[in-house]
Amino acid sequence: QVQLVESGGGLVQAGDSLRLSCAASGRTFSSYTIGWFRQAPGKEREFIAHINWSGSNTDIEDSVKGRFTISRDNAKNTVYLQMNSLKAEDTAVYYCARRIGSRYDSWGQGTQVTVSS
Fold first, then answer.
1. Non-local CB neighbours of 25 within 8 Å, separated by 6+ positions
2. Are 55 and 71 in contact (CB under 8 A)?
3. Inter-residue contact 71 to 100 (CB < 8 Å)
4. Are 105 and 83 in contact (CB under 8 A)?
């Protein structure tokens, strides 16, 4: 079983940067693709990015491509989401999850990102 804990959120101004962390427990963390999602108030949860087990393959959602990058450090059991040039519309709770086949599970509790314009 893998448990994921997100951190690094906060209140920032438009144009600022944040780095979110997704820390995992469990010996098999490095075996899995990990994804980042976000959910804004009144909206459905949306996919942001994922990274495969080795970090050699990533996918970034078009709306944040060029501003957000995903990386991982398997020695630290952590996946990162670097967010630059933040906009007010990036305000949301950000979650990480483990991918099993075509599904995601082991969702973390989320970390709030608020961007003031």
1. 2, 3, 77
2. yes
3. no
4. no
Q: Which amino acid appears at position 67 of this protein? A: R
CA 105, CA 30: separation in Å to the nearest integer?
Answer: 15
Pair 30, 53: CB distance under 8 Å:
yes
- Residues 64-89 as b/e (b if ≥16 CB within 10 A, e otherwise) read beeebbbebeeeebbbbbebeebeee
Output the tens digit of pLDDT for each of the chain's 117 residues.
Answer: 789 999 999 999 999 999 999 999 877 788 899 999 999 999 999 999 999 999 999 999 999 999 999 999 999 999 999 999 999 999 999 999 999 999 999 999 999 999 999
Task: Quote the tokens at residue 73.
Answer: 């450090």
Length of the chain: 117
Q: Residue 74 corresponds to which amino acid?
A: N
Whether residue 84 contacts residue 55, with contact meaning beta carbons closer than 8 Å, is answered with no
